[in-house]
């Protein structure tokens, strides 16, 4: 029977361990990059650009138009004298044509526009990456808050266990007449306060898990175990904003290339076949078919320095991007310096926390002995015990703040 009970307990523990969801902060980043609504824009931008480039390439194919018109005009061309066999031109005229235009050369404008579309797509996709990266700071906060609530729960449970053991001791003292019944009631009241704190802790953790689930657009179970992230400060890293600035510069260069090609000659071949009254022979006053073929050259040899002005405007745009990049780098470095200072401060505070906890622990041990000997009341003992656990809680808060500062440093640095 005993062996069966052990087997059942082991089975329950195994199932429970499988049911728990282990989660790392890197997995949260990956979920956000994949599932957050704005992430869908990356594929949409790719599809949009494919359609736009396909439309541009259609300009390389022949353009075919069917035209038809019927007109009546108040006057027509006429000869000063009547000639035998020549009839006056009708004032009502009819024409239907099939027109074909084929682009032969346009200075590489189609290819230039294609490259511009691709540059625009890459810039917009990188902007999506920038927006997704900015989610990391919010993920960092939620993730570390969940860990803090977990740490706090462990402290509360440890305190609860201590109170339970003290209640047993006090009950024994009350039974033997060594302590007053109120001593037990003080501890029972403290136990109820702990149950309230544990309830609040549970709901706060669930709330933060829901926030993290929303940021990552995934389902996170309430019994999920979050692993502590690495807090090593790496020196090398690249923010997606830097790539975004670079792609903006490439896009501007692609626009300048289009301007350079806009004034190059453009050559088209055309053909027209038609049927009308009159045809090409205006003196033949009857329905007739006709056709013509030819080449058409267009070359804007002078644009009043329009292209030069447009290029100068784009040069200014490049300078604006450069200043935005420099501003970003300056602000980024300021944030890193602030976090370095915060990290140093917290490391010093945590060392002091350890000293405070050591002293408070000695005070509680002394108070415990004094309570047993009736030197102090249970309330006085509880006060010292609360101060010990407050010190431990403060240390956990400071440790979490330190870890958060280090993770934010990594995020701002661009090392993950």
TrEMBL record:
Keywords: Cell outer membrane, Membrane, Signal, Transmembrane, Transmembrane beta strand, Transport. Belongs to the outer membrane factor (OMF) (TC 1.B.17) family. Residues 1-19 form the signal peptide. This is TolC family protein. Its main location: membrane. It comes from the Bacteria. It is found in: Cell outer membrane. PANTHER family: OUTER MEMBRANE PROTEIN TOLC. Coiled coil: none annotated.
């Amino acid at each position: 029977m005993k062996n069966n009970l052990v087997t059942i307990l082991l089975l329950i523990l195994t199932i429970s361990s499988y049911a728990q969801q282990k989660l790392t902060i890197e997995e949260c980043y990956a979920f956000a990059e994949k599932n957050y609504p704005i992430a869908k824009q990356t594929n949409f931008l790719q599809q949009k650009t494919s359609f736009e480039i396909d439309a541009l390439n259609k300009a390389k194919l022949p353009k075919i138009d069917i035209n038809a018109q019927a007109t009546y005009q108040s006057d027509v061309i006429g000869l000063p004298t009547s000639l035998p066999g020549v009839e006056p031109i009708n004032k009502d005229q009819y024409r239907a044509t099939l027109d074909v235009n084929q682009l032969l050369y346009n200075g590489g404008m189609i290819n230039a526009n294609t490259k511009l579309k691709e540059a625009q797509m890459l810039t917009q996709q990188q902007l999506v990456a920038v927006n997704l990266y900015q989610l990391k700071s919010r993920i960092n906060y939620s993730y570390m808050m969940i860990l803090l609530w977990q740490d706090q729960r462990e402290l509360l449970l440890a305190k609860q266990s201590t109170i339970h053991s003290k209640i047993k001791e006090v009950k024994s003292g009350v039974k033997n007449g060594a302590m007053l019944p109120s001593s037990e009631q003080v501890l029972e009241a403290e136990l109820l306060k702990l149950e309230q704190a544990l309830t609040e802790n549970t709901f706060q953790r669930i709330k933060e898990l829901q926030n993290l689930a929303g940021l990552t657009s995934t389902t996170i179970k309430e019994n999920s175990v979050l692993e502590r992230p690495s807090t090593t400060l790496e020196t090398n890293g690249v923010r997606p904003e830097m790539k975004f600035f670079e792609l903006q510069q490439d896009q501007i260069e692609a626009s300048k290339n289009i301007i350079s090609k806009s004034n190059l000659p453009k050559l088209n071949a055309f053909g027209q076949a038609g049927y009308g009254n009159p045809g090409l022979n205006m003196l033949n006053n009857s329905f007739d078919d006709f056709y013509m073929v030819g080449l058409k050259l267009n070359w804007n040899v002078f644009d009043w320095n329009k292209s030069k002005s447009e290029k100068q405007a784009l040069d200014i745009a490049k300078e604006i991007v450069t200043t935005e990049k420099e501003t970003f780098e300056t602000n980024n470095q300021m944030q890193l310096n602030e976090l370095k200072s915060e990290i140093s401060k917290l490391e010093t505070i945590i060392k002091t926390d350890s000293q405070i906890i050591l002293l408070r622990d000695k005070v509680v041990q002394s108070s415990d002995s004094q309570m047993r000997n009736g030197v102090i009341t249970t309330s006085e003992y509880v006060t010292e015990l609360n101060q010990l656990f407050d010190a431990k809680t403060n240390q956990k808060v400071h440790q979490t703040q330190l870890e958060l500062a280090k993770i934010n440093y990594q995020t701002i640095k661009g090392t993950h």
